[in-house]
Amino acid sequence: MALGVFMDGRHLDHPEFEQLTQSWRLAAVVFQLRSLGWPVEKIEIPSPTDENPRRCIALYHLPMKYVSEVLAQSGGGE
User: Fold this and answer.
1) Which residues fall within 8 angstroms of residue 25, CB to CB, at 6 or more apart?
2) How much is the CA Rg of the chain, to the nearest whole Å?
3) How do residues 2-37 score in pLDDT, each as one tens digit?
4) Domain 2-74 maps to which CATH number in 1.10.260, 3.30.70, 1.20.120, 1.10.10?
5) What pTM was computed for the model?
């Protein structure tokens, strides 16, 4: 599911992944995608709470250059 979101050119964070999949294992999924050669990137974004005002969460995405390459190779970019 995460790869599908990335191939749609969207970003994905933990709360959205949990909402989509009922799983809190986004980091593990990203780790597996990376081990398969997908160049998933991470951006740290502020997500403060009262208990942790300096908290950041990861926002993952697949750079559009790679999405375009995959689509072109599979015939989906025509």
Assistant:
1) none
2) 14
3) 999 999 999 999 999 999 999 999 999 999 999 999
4) 1.10.10
5) 0.81
